């Protein structure tokens, strides 16, 4: 049986870090990595949705990962999302990630064209073959990718010995149960939707990867701790508080990640820039929402952490 302990726990999805001109900032990437080390999370998930990967070049994503690895070496589990919407670029990123020594690579399915399952499996296996010594994680996010990981496709992918599990961001919690029951303890299933962290963990996910963890890591670490100790009622209270914050983060004109980055800039003294177009930037009317969300986080940490 494989040792999957390094993947079990709270793994924030890493945010894109830009300079004032909107280019990738190596210094800010390293600063965000150090922030996560200081917070005590298990690892980071780099160049995924929260990293705005769909709007970045291959070179951008290499720069991000290189600087994460420089700051995270030996301190964090690093999972690199390497999928692009073509196999060639994805294989290039996979090989680059392996050369840096990441713990695992991850991939969404190809988007836009609706491919048959055998083509999706070939795409994933071709990418995995470019990193032959690195664990592979399937990223299931059907609401954005337009295609879901079926049980048949999951069974086909488990023929690849490098496949170790699924980052499941579909909304039905039952999907986690189905993947876990089919795969067993030799595979790891990550909860994706942050609003159901406790639900995913209780039904079988051994860890979580999420885009809002980074702005309130203490709260997700607390939920994880309480779930592990069987204190579900306490965990539920923290989850409810977290969800209220998430709803507030999503209520601005600006993209949720723009709100998160402004909270980090003001309240954590961590400036990682804004978001890349076509994601919507903050407008002046969003600033009360930023303040309200930050206050909600502060209050939750004050009242629910002990």
Shape descriptor: globular
- The proportion of residues forming helix, as a percent range, comes to 40-55%
The Rg value, from CA coordinates, equals 18 Å
Which consecutive residue ranges, at least 5 long each, have pLDDT under 50?
none
Instruction: Tell me the series of helices and strands, N- to C-terminal.
Output: EHEHEHEHEHHEHEHEHHHH
The number of helical elements comes to 12
Strand order of the largest sheet: 1-8-7-6-5-4-3-2
- By DSSP, the count of extended strands is 8
Give descriptors for this structure.
alpha/beta; globular
Description:
The protein is an alpha/beta fold. The protein is built from 12 helices and 8 strands. The protein has helices at 26-39, 58-72, 87-100, 117-129, 142-145, 151-157, 174-183, 197-203, 217-228, 232-249, 256-267, 287-304, and strands spanning 10-12, 43-46, 77-81, 104-107, 135-140, 163-168, 188-191, 207-210. The protein has an 8-stranded parallel beta sheet. Helix 1 crosses helix 2 (58-72) and helix 8 (197-203) runs parallel beside helix 9. The longest helix is centred in the C-terminal third of the chain and has 18 residues, at 232-249. It is globular, with a radius of gyration of 18 Å. The mean pLDDT is 97.
